[in-house]
Write a structure and sequence with these properties.
Elements: H1 9-13, H2 16-25, E1 28-32, E2 39-43, H3 46-54, H4 62-66, H5 77-80, H6 90-101, H7 104-109, H8 111-123, E3 130-132, H9 133-138, H10 140-150, H11 157-166, H12 173-196, H13 202-212, H14 219-232, H15 235-250, H16 252-260, H17 265-275, E4 285-286, E5 291-293, E6 296-298, E7 303-306, H18 308-311, H19 347-364, E8 369-370, E9 392-394
Parallel strand pairs: 2-7
Antiparallel strand pairs: 1-2, 3-9, 4-7, 5-6, 8-9
């Protein structure tokens, strides 16, 4: 058993050397979670990660795992139990209902709004000035987009972003729990307003699914879906935009390829997502019974942490994986959006946002460059999300 990487500040600053060391030991291995005796199974290899994502013997039912275990947490149920924390057939039913309302066409319809918003934000930047790209663009744009989709009024979006960000405050349990209650309370009130005054928003459509046949979607499930879509719909996209811009600024030859031919941006997205995945460690899984995973025995009761951030840098799958190559032929095999029945439902919307933001940046801020050395950048203290706290850039 190796020591835990999750408490090492070096891991949060640059987790890829740690992932490489873990993969070299084994693509599936037991790692202590912290100072206690509890250990988790960490999946770092590409083939093992694909298997874990689709293995029906691994459960996402967090309620079953934590049943009977002492806890001082007070997460709101709408955050603690979502579509991401249940197994089929419950998950199958919920995902089908969300898919019915959240279609790829709906995401495509948002493209003009996304472009207009990106142009509006970037158009306010003064030539020669320094801006924090996370605070000014990568953060507020995805929030505005998912709020537009769900029907959250503009006046409430700052509060929504604050609560959502707090949910990822690694280690600060009280702040996380408080934010979960604030966000759930707000979304419950918003559902009530959509029920009273329906509109064309996704939240209105989901409310209609519940009201048309309450047996298919309970009130608690409606609330948890609303909270999940809101949070998952922007946190990882914010990270993805920041990571993509940073990767390009650190690889000027690749950035020049896009500047010379902006039409290549859509094709470059997979490599950018592979190179620095916004979801570094996937959401919780566990093994109810002992199971074999890629030739390694996973003990019964073990939490299982699948690491797309590591799998996407596995040299057994991607040649020279630590090199950014926007022409990489097999980049689309990345696991940044997961794999199997839990693959990210919002992938088309996230891709549209990243693509459009990069295009507008190339058009309106063609000489963008880092304002500080790369080793001074601060990364978020989150095991799940790989994203920057700030990205100072010079125009």
């Amino acid at each position: 058993m190796v020591s835990s990487p999750f408490t090492d500040p070096a891991f949060l600053a640059d987790r890829y050397p740690t992932y490489a060391a873990l993969r070299a030991t084994s693509p599936v291995l037991q790692v202590p979670l912290g100072s206690g005796a509890t250990a988790a199974t960490v999946v770092t290899g590409y083939d093992a990660a694909r298997q874990a994502f689709t293995a029906p013997v691994l459960s996402k039912d967090t309620e079953a795992y934590f049943a009977g275990r002492p806890s001082d947490r007070s997460l709101h149920p709408a955050v603690a139990r979502t579509m991401l924390s249940v197994d089929p057939p419950e998950h199958t039913r919920l995902r089908r209902l969300v898919t019915r309302a959240f279609t790829p066409a709906r995401a495509a319809d948002l493209r003009p709004y996304i472009r207009s918003l990106a142009e509006q934000i970037i158009g306010l930047w003064e030539p020669g000035s320094e801006v924090d790209l996370v605070e000014e663009l990568a953060g507020p744009l995805p929030v505005a987009v998912i709020c537009q989709l769900l029907g959250v009024p503009p006046v409430d979006r700052t509060s929504v972003r604050s609560w959502s960000t707090a949910l990822f405050a690694s280690g600060d349990h009280q702040r996380i729990d408080d934010a979960s209650h604030a966000l759930a309370t707000y979304m419950a009130e918003l559902i009530g307003s959509k029920r009273a005054c329906p509109d064309h928003s996704l939240l209105s459509d989901l409310t209609a699914v519940h009201d048309d046949d309450a047996g298919r979607l309970s009130e608690d499930e409606l609330l948890s879906l609303a909270v999940l879509l809101l949070v998952a719909g922007h946190e990882t996209t914010t990270a993805a935009i920041g990571n993509a811009v940073l990767a390009l600024l650190q690889h000027p030859a690749e950035l020049e390829r896009l500047r010379a031919s902006p039409r290549r941006i859509r094709g470059a997205l997979d490599e950018l997502l592979r190179y620095d995945s916004p979801v570094s460690i996937a959401t919780w899984r566990w093994a109810p019974d002992e199971v074999d995973l890629d030739g390694t025995a996973v003990p019964a009761g073990s939490p299982v942490f699948v690491c797309p951030g590591s799998a996407n840098r596995d040299p057994s799958r991607f040649a020279d994986p630590d090199r950014l190559d926007l022409g990489r032929a097999d980049a689309s095999a990345h696991l940044a959006f997961g794999h199997g029945i839990h693959r990210c439902l919002g992938a088309p919307l996230a891709r549209a946002e990243i693509e459009i933001v990069l295009g507008v940046l190339l058009e309106h801020a063609p000489n963008l460059q880092l304002a500080i050395p790369s080793d001074q950048l601060v990364w978020r203290r989150s095991r799940l999300v790989r994203g920057l706290e700030a990205l100072p850039v010079q125009l």
